[in-house]
Every structure is written in structure tokens, then in C-alpha cells.
Design goal:
By secondary structure, this protein is mostly helical. It has 4 helices and 2 strands. It has helices at about 10-20, 25-30, 40-65, 65-70, and strands at about 1-5, 10.
């Protein structure tokens, strides 16, 4: 899904940026330019970034958990 029409940034672009280390909305704006033109995408872009960083945190915890806990 396209999040930022002005810069042609998709939710996948934002997820990739999060995996590459963008941890804040400011980082995301610097990296992809989202919400730097009209600004209408700011809320959606921020929510997408938060969702992507949350997925990483949950995934990292699951990868580090002992096998018995990961299956529970």
C-alpha cells in the first residue's frame, strides 16, 4: 500500500527502513522523505513504523526465547 503519495513510499519501504535501523519518525523522514511535502501521510507513516518496529521486537524476543517457551 502506498503511504506517501508525494514521495511514492509504500508500507514495505517503511518496514525495510525499520529493519535497516530507522527507529524514530525523524529517522524515517530523513531516510525516505515521508511527510516532508504535504504532510497528509504523517499519521499513517508513523503508525506503520511503530507496527514494523513492534514486529521486530516481538520477533527478536521469540528468537531468543528457549524452545519450550516459544512453542507455548
Amino acid at each position: 500500500m502506498i503511504v506517501c503519495v508525494c514521495r511514492k513510499v509504500s508500507d514495505r519501504d517503511i518496514e525495510r527502513a525499520a529493519r535497516a535501523g530507522c527507529a524514530s519518525f525523524d529517522d524515517l523522514q530523513m531516510e525516505l522523505g515521508v511527510a516532508t511535502c504535504c504532510g497528509r501521510c504523517a499519521e499513517c507513516a508513523q503508525q506503520t513504523l511503530e507496527s514494523a518496529t513492534h514486529k521486530q521486537t516481538v520477533g527478536a524476543r521469540a528468537a531468543c526465547a528457549p524452545r519450550e517457551l516459544a512453542l507455548a
